[in-house]
């Protein structure tokens, strides 16, 4: 019964997810190779040579066979940064060669939090996302919070009218070792690669 749910009913509920269940082995191999390489050069791409960064970007552009309508995908839970080509703090880079750990946590169907964590320090950016088309979302920044040992020490409301955009290059589910992961590869325009470990009942 569970198998039936997973193979027949779940894909219908999630609409686009059905394509993932018959994910060809060939594509798994190329996305896994890409992921491995991005991890090796990441998470802060700007610590690497221009050549290395360019290689990751061109490999990302060559990926094929992901979800055809990635912007319509429901997102939940915590997504960990694998690689960022961003020159600034959104890659986790704080000062010099010091970088924090970056995560993106989906609060609900409209909001998410970009977070940089470094020891007791946490910098959070609350943002709203909005579908632009099947492959693109617009992002609007709403609030920043700085926490030390979990306690907010500074909070600032932003106008919520500007931010950025996510242009998906590839989104799909991969199996890496025993784990199933949702992998998102996007341009903001800097390249971002994020992964989210899936529960058995997700997708
Ligand atoms: C989602 O969460 C944000 C931030 O907590 C909140 O402002 C917003 O109203 C919530 N939206 C929905 C649809 O629940």
Automatic annotation (TrEMBL):
Keywords tagged on the record: Signal
Source superkingdom: Eukaryota
Signal peptide region: 1-19
Protein name: Plastid lipid-associated protein/fibrillin conserved domain-containing protein
Species assigned in the record: Fistulifera solaris (Oleaginous diatom)
